[in-house]
Design brief:
This protein is mainly α and 166 residues long. It is built from seven helices and two strands; from the N terminus they run H-H-H-H-H-H-E-E-H. It has a domain at 43-140. It has helices at 27-39, 43-64, 71-84, 88-94, 99-104, 106-118, 136-140, and strands at 120-121, 128-129.
Length: 166
């Protein structure tokens, strides 16, 4: 036998009936959440971090116009940007996934672009070099130039006359 609604029994409505079902917290959901929190308290934090990192990568692809960004480098850049600026994660999540919208928050967009193109996250004493060879400034010209300061021959080989192509 099913329970009658409160108003059928002459009781006042509790307001719960007006709440959208997606907002309702049931005892079962609360118990399951508590169980997972007891087993692994950092799970919720990791899930939130993974979501903000995913958004950071999507925004990075829009800003750089490159779909082939290395997620491992992206993770290191994101972590370093968050470590150097406590409010970075919140601002990065707020960036829309289009160029015009992302350009509205120029400092955050510039920080993301600087990190990808220079391979350095942060500024001043808090700057961290994440990559040099894989920085987009070097990848963009890799078909023609090697990154500066990298020797690809014996000492002094730069002084030899080039051989004729043929």
């Amino acid at each position: 036998m099913r329970a009658k609604p409160p108003e059928a029994a002459g009781l006042p409505r509790t307001g719960h009936q007006d709440t959208p079902s997606s907002w309702r917290t049931t005892r079962r959901m609360l118990m399951i959440g508590s169980l997972f929190a007891a087993i692994d308290p950092s799970a919720a934090l990791r899930a939130a971090t993974a979501d903000t990192f995913g958004h950071f990568m999507r925004v990075s692809r829009v800003l750089t116009a490159r779909q082939d960004l290395d997620p491992e480098i992206g993770r290191r850049l994101y972590d370093a940007l968050c470590a150097s600026d406590a409010g970075f994660a919140g601002r990065a999540v707020a960036l829309p996934l289009d160029e015009a919208g992302a350009a509205a928050d120029r400092p955050t967009s510039k920080a993301i672009l600087d990190a990808w193109y220079l391979g350095v996250a942060g500024r001043g004493l808090q700057a961290v070099c994440i990559t040099y060879v894989a920085a987009l400034m070097n990848q963009t010209v890799a078909d023609v130039l090697n990154p500066p300061t990298y020797a690809y021959g014996r000492y002094g080989s730069w002084a030899d006359k080039p051989t004729a192509a043929g």
